[in-house]
Amino acid sequence: xxxxxxxxxxxxxxxxxxxxxxxxPAFEVVxxxxxxGSFPVGPEARQGGSFVATFxxxxxxxxxxxxxxxxRVVGGAExxxxxxxxxxxxxxxxxxxxxxxxxxxxxxKDRFQLVVRRETRxxxxxxxxxARSDKRPGPNLRPxxxxxxxxxxxxxxxxxxxxNGGVSTQRTCAPMSVLVSSLSNALQAPVEDxxxxxxxxxxxxxxxxxxxxxxxxxxxARDPNDAPALLTAVQEQLGLRLESARGPIDxxxxxxxxxxxxx
Length: 263
Known about the structure:
Elements: H1 3-22, E1 29-34, E2 41-46, E3 50-56, H2 58-66, E4 73-75, H3 79-82, E5 85-90, H4 97-111, E6 115-130, E7 141-143, E8 156-161, E9 166-174, H5 176-187, E10 191-193, E11 201-208, H6 217-222, H7 229-238, E12 240-256
Parallel strand pairs: 4-12, 6-10
Antiparallel strand pairs: 1-5, 2-3, 3-5, 6-12, 7-11, 8-9, 9-11
C-alpha cells in the first residue's frame, strides 16, 4: 500500500472514530445544585429525554444508572452517600430509558469525575427454600385468587412502617421474583429462589427491627435485638426459610469521584 493510500485509510479511521464519539448520547442542558434538605424525588427518566433527581446522593444516582441494589455499590468517600443534590437534565429530544441512563452516566463522569470498576467479593448470600416437610406455603402466602389479568388488576405492592418500628409488606398478583427482591433488599444480600413455586402469589409479611449487613442468620437468631424477626416471620407467616451461606457477589466499586461545580 502506498503512502497516499495509508494516509487515506488513517483519515477514514479517524473520521469513523470521531463519528462514533459524536453519536454518544449527551444532555444539552444540565443543572446541579446542592440540596440541604428536601423531599426526595427520583432519580427518574421522563418523557422528552429529561432526567430529574431531587435530594439524591451520588450513590443513589449510580444505582439508578446501573440498576443495582445498595449492597452492590461499594467504595467511595463518605460524601458520596451523605451529600444530596438536585439535578435536572434535558436532552432536547425524545430518548429511550436506556439512552437517558447512558447520558446520566456521561454526566456523572463529566461533572462528578466518576470512576468505577466491577469486581467480585465474598459476602453473605441466602437461599429461599420451603420450610415445611409437606412443601406447603404458610398462611400468609397464597396463590392469587383474583383475575390478575382483568382491567384494573395486576401486580401491586405496599411497604409501610408500623407504629412499633416494624415493617409490613403486601404483594398481590406477584411472581416469586418480586418477593425474593423484597427480601434481598431487607437483608441487603442476594437471595436465590429455590422454592420451585410458580405462578402469581398474594403475600403478607410483617416483621420488626432492622437486619445489619453481613450478619448471618445464626448470629441473628442468637440476638433478638439484631432483628431475627425477619427470618422468623418468613418461616412462620410464609412457610419459607432463608438459609444463609457465604459466596461471591458482583459489586460496583466507586474508585473516585469529585464534588461537582454547582450551576
